[in-house]
Design goal:
- With about 150 residues, the chain is mainly beta.
- It has one domain: Ribosomal Protein L22, Chain A, CATH 3.90.470.
- It is built from two helices and ten strands.
- It has helices spanning about 80-90, 120-125; strands at about 10-15, 25, 40, 45-50, 55-65, 65-75, 100-105, 110-115, 130-135, 140-150.
- Strands 2-1-10-9 form a four-stranded mixed sheet, with helices on one face.
- Strand 7 and strand 8 form a beta hairpin.
- The radius of gyration is 16 Å and the shape is globular.
- It starts with 7 loop residues before the first strand and ends with a strand.
Length: about 150
């Protein structure tokens, strides 16, 4: 695949582990403790946090600030959202909130980013027309690479 060299690419890697001080590290064996405003995930079924990903099933409610999302099933990957926010250079907050982006999976299994509201506004302002995402996780750690591409 040839990438047009006039495109600007912003790349951010969020890695867990002991790969040296040059990489940004994130502890993912425990759920994040300080999300402002608090992110809350509740459900009637099974909930677990494994490999840096939250899993919740059956009548799931996700509450973040004044926003509420309801679904049958949720897989919440904070590592990918953190990597996306770092690629934008904003961090998670008012400019790019947790619910301003979504990680989906194409029928081929390839992950993708979908932006909502503030995230969509930020992507448009920054000229982002395409994103590339790669994800990996083990039982205790997760890693994400996000590239924001534009004209």
């Amino acid at each position: 695949m040839k990438i047009n060299t006039s495109w600007a690419a912003f790349l951010c890697v969020l890695v867990s582990g002991t790969f040296g001080s040059a990489l940004l590290r994130a502890q993912t064996s425990e759920p994040p403790e300080s999300v402002e405003p608090p992110l809350q995930i509740t459900s009637d079924g099974a909930n677990r946090y494994e490999g840096g990903i939250y899993y919740a099933e059956d009548n799931v409610t996700v509450t973040y600030g004044g926003d509420v999302l309801m679904a049958d099933q949720v897989h919440f990957n904070p590592t990918t959202k953190e990597a996306t926010a770092k690629a934008f250079g904003t961090g998670i907050g008012a400019t790019l909130p947790w619910l301003g982006m979504e990680i989906g999976r194409q029928s081929t299994g390839q992950p993708f980013l979908r932006f909502h509201q503030a995230g969509e506004d930020l992507a448009r302002i920054r000229g982002v027309t395409r994103t590339l995402v790669t994800l990996t996780h083990t039982r205790n750690h997760s890693a994400a690479t996000v590239a924001l591409l534009g004209s």
